[in-house]
Amino acid sequence: MEDRAILERLETIAGPRNVTMHADDLAPWLSDWRGRITGRAIALVSPETAEQVQAIVRLAGETGLAIVPQGGNTGMVAGGIPRPDDRAILLSLRKMNMIRSIDPDDNSITVEAGAVLSVVHQAAEEHGRRFPLSLGSKDSATIGGLIATNAGGTQVLRFGSMRALTLGIEAVLPDGSLFEGLSTLRKDNRGYDIRQLLAGSEGTLGVITAASLELVPAAPHRVVAWLGLGSARGALAMLRRLEGVLGDAVESFELVPDTALALVLEHIPDTRAPLAGGHPWHALVELRTANDPEEMRKYCEDVLAKALDDGLIADAVLAESEGQAAAFWKLREVISEAERADGMAAKHDVSVPVSAMPEFIETAREAVEARFAGARVIAFGHLGDGNVHFNVRAPAGSDDRAWFAQTGDAVSRFVHDMTRDAGGSLSAEHGIGQLKLAEFGRLADPVRLATMRAIKQALDPLGIMNPGKLVPLANPPKNP
Ligand code: FAD
Ligand code: MLT
Ligand code: ZN
């Protein structure tokens, strides 16, 4: 079918105001957040109802077009960017952003897929509840994208990742049928869990149109601390001590190396280091309670004072106000932005068993520096989940682009091999998308790959849903 005829069909389905083929309208949505990958699409369509999504998916099936679902386009692996050679419809869910219902007694909220995370936070708070998943992209990332990538963030330690918080899903499947799974049941044992199959499927098995999410009590009081440490091992020991005394109140424990803090202070306005003096490592801790915050603060101070005496930490400061707590959090949440401003990086989103992570960070850094002269490692993030962003930058003063063109793939293979050898995963929370596809195909065990291909084939026999993402082909074409 000619592009013009497709446009007319899409306009009939979604209305002319929701369809565009103009290059200027499409451009912002055809490159990933880091600007590494740029794709192509025939049209950008922004449906307003699940019925419209169904009709668009049926049109794609009829005409052999690819459907690429997209939310906020904050994904880290270019899963929401069409490939340059596909005849693709870029399907934006951003206009489907209603809060459908909220039930404080049920501790649940039901929202359309395009609802932005920070809006969901706000809605929950207005009802005395919390949606306990947060990340640096919260003002753009959508619920559909977060479920499709099974996003993690900074409270996984306490509440788990997106899967754990998703009670129900409504989705358009590749044949255009509507899976109406918006239940908020906590117990439902009717066999295969289609909701969990769609979570983490990166748009390859269907288009999520709405979801029911778990809410938790508000726990309005928080204590936020910034610690200075000599080693990542000390950081993990500190986390375990805090948990020993404060239990579930410990909701976040994020690791920040001095190199990441330096990038933030250099590139992000209105930031300053919480502690005087340099420390090789820092940790950001958040404790939450619905009870007496002074009591929790006191316990926290006692644990930290003892840790200082024991030499486990080198320094610590507790935020004195909400403003200061927000300033500490900003330092953590803008690391990616600062890193992007500073230049290119080979990003690795790796997990290993939590207890093995401190040693992994050190040995993998030493190995990378020994193998790739001058390479600079920045490992930061979710230590308590056994997940760090193990990013490798070109030698200082070198030509980034030339270095990565020549060395980037070898660096990533090296890091991923070490991760596999440590019993880990090459994608802890960002997914596979396009950027990790070849590496996933190289390293995944054959039974996992065969099972994923069988599921994909069963649900999407025409291969229209987000082709070239997540599921490696059985026989990928060789590079010329
Ligand atoms: P998009 O980027 O638009 O899409 C992501 C994937 O989901 C694509 O494969 C797309 O096809 C698919 N998709 C999107 N919507 C739908 C839908 N409705 N139905 C089916 N498939 C769909 N991630 C973490 O896990 N933890 C972090 O701490 C974290 N921090 C971040 C910080 C920053 C500054 C940034 C820029 C990103 C961060 N991310 C983090 C990346 C994270 O994956 C995204 O923020 C989020 O999960 C993607 O949501 P999105 O709406 O932007 O999805
Ligand atoms: C983070 O934890 O800040 C993110 O996952 C983003 C990133 O890895 O760049
Ligand atoms: Zn992360």
UniProtKB/TrEMBL annotation:
Q: Where is the signal peptide?
A: none
Q: Which Pfam families match?
A: FAD-oxidase_C, FAD_binding_4
- Report the PROSITE patterns cross-referenced here: FAD_PCMH
User: Where is the chain membrane-spanning?
Assistant: none
Provide the FAD-binding PCMH-type domain boundaries: 37-218
What are the protein's GO molecular function terms?
catalytic activity; FAD binding
Q: Does the keyword Membrane apply?
A: no
Q: Which UniProt keywords apply?
A: FAD, Flavoprotein
The name this protein carries in UniProt is FAD/FMN-containing dehydrogenase
* Organism, as annotated: Parasphingopyxis lamellibrachiae
User: What does the organism's lineage look like at the top?
Assistant: Bacteria, Pseudomonadati, Pseudomonadota, Alphaproteobacteria, Sphingomonadales
